């Protein structure tokens, strides 16, 4: 299949945080490099699917909104994930379905209406040179993104689209069941971890039977949850490798769920780890939203994740 690339959009207004994300950077944690990738795997995957892209194509993760793009060519796009009040030439843009954008039209992301992170995928995906096997942008590590150095978008940047000739959009819209209402309280599936037995009985009861609130101290590295303090008998431990969704409990007893840009090792006891889809769901929660933790088994977690990946042909 012949592949070409061209400038697809000019950044008129960069907004607070818009980052290029493919599936993530794997096999490099031994170097102290984190994975990056989409904070909301579900929304990212659907944006790419609706744009006719294969798994792993690079899309733009837009957090909070405030981004304005001007099309520099005709291109089919899809926006999935959060509703950030996006418009095309001041007309509301349909979400969760492919839309044709003409050269010269303006795409504006407003502010959060439902959820926190929207994903913009052009047909063919965005193009950038991979760094350590991925274009995912991790600003803290200075890796990936359109310039290869982890830079956020800036006014005047031009975003290149990688267009695969002959690739057709196969799905006209996402099923209603896939369009999550991120305003609803979320139940997050958690796999109990190695130190779970070291938490007091009262703490374990509180962890899984009371509501947690998303703190305003949240980013792509992790999300702090506030609620009843959890007490652990382990006061010191050797740092261990940290996976996606790991729920660490520091001395103040308030859990921190670690996301895509997390550190690679950590020395706080862990309640367990959120499943990948639960970590994705948490990434769409605004500060102040309520969530609950629900213990799950490895078998159930694997079954849910395999079903999700199989639905995308991977």
How would you describe this structure to a colleague?
By secondary structure, the chain is mainly beta. It folds into two domains: about 180 residues, no CATH class; about 120 residues, Cyclophilin (Beta Barrel). The protein is about 10% helix and about 30% strand. It contains four helices and 20 strands. It has a seven-stranded mixed β-barrel with strand order 12-19-16-17-14-13-20. A six-stranded antiparallel sheet has the order 7-6-9-4-1-11, with no helix packed on it. Strands 2-3-10-5-8 form a five-stranded antiparallel sheet. Strand 16 and strand 17 form a beta hairpin. The longest helix has 13 residues. It is globular. The two termini are about 20 Å apart. The model has no long low-confidence stretch (mean pLDDT about 95).
Order of helices and strands: EEHEEEEEEEEEEHEEEEEEEHEH
Strand order of the largest sheet: 12-19-16-17-14-13-20
Q: What are the segments in which pLDDT stays under 50 over at least 5 consecutive residues?
A: none
Terminal CA distance: 20 Å
**SSE class:** mainly beta
Number of domains: 2
Helix content: 10-25%
**Number of DSSP-assigned strands:** 20
What's the mean pLDDT score? 94
Describe the largest sheet.
7 strands, mixed, barrel
Q: Kindly provide the radius of gyration, computed on alpha-carbon positions and rounded to a whole number of angstroms.
A: 20 Å
Broad shape:
globular
Tell me the number of helical segments per DSSP (H or I, 4 or more residues long): 4
Q: What is the beta-strand fraction?
A: 25-35%
